[in-house]
Design brief:
This protein has helices at residues 6-37, 41-47, 59-65, 70-101, 108-120, 125-136, 143-150, 154-167, 170-178, 183-194, 196-212, 215-220, 230-246, 254-259, 265-296. It is an all-alpha fold and 300 residues long. Helix 8 (154-167) runs parallel beside helix 15.
Length: 300
Amino acid sequence: MTMLTKEDRIYQCVSHVVMMILSLNVIIPMALLVISSFTDNDTLIRNGYAFFPENLSIYAYQYIFRTGNAVLRAYGVSLLLTAVGTALSLAVTIPLAYALSRPGLPAKRLLTFYVFFTVLFNGSLVPTYMNYTNVIGIKNSFWALLIPGLVTNGFYILLAKSYFSASVPGEILEAAEIDGASACQTFLRIAIPLAKPIVTTVGLFAAIGYWNDWQNGYIYLTKRADLYSIQNLLNRMIQNIQYLSQNVSNIRDADVGLAAIPSVSIRMAMAVVGILPILVLYPFLQSNFAKGITLGGVKG
């Protein structure tokens, strides 16, 4: 057993303290968010946020799920979008990243620069909107939620390329080719199993991106509220509450309806409803995610 020097022990102690502080900076706000979502709305307004509130209530969640099957349908749309979008993102990202990592690829530098350029610059909102609506014609369809996310993953490609270059031994790939394996067989049977951490990392990034996306639905779904994802639906609820709050004096009986809305606690409950699936999924992918993001950034 290797004996630690005094400097090593000091380094470990300081590292543990720093990591504990960083962890608490994440855990404490998250705990306060969840507790606030179960706090009575009047108590929040009167006393503010607290870890030990006077009155607890689940009315904010009851209000959210009282909208019939809208929330459940939005959850279904988000789950389908995340599953399909993640699979397609991996199908686009990983093969291209593997190809860019291989020596001898024709126009390799030009293709790598093209991918890197899309990370630095992208089309502005107006031409992007015109292309998607007038040329591709995805407005008011499920494709409006899916396609924009597939063409903005240059960072994922470079991350996976770095992993293939640094962590997948070229000798193993060359040995497979010498044994008669085709390029596709080498990629599917050798490279992909060795690149499981980066595949998991890119998949998690893509899944979080699709799950949290609300902008595409806000821009492209003008007539199809039935295609709202959970983020779009929660965003629309917040907008409605803000509208009632700002125009309560101009709308007849609006103050009566507004009094029944948990205007503060519902924001916390919406945040919990929106992030819950990611919190449940992340622990199962944590080890591969950490390894993939670490090794994927080692070498360009």
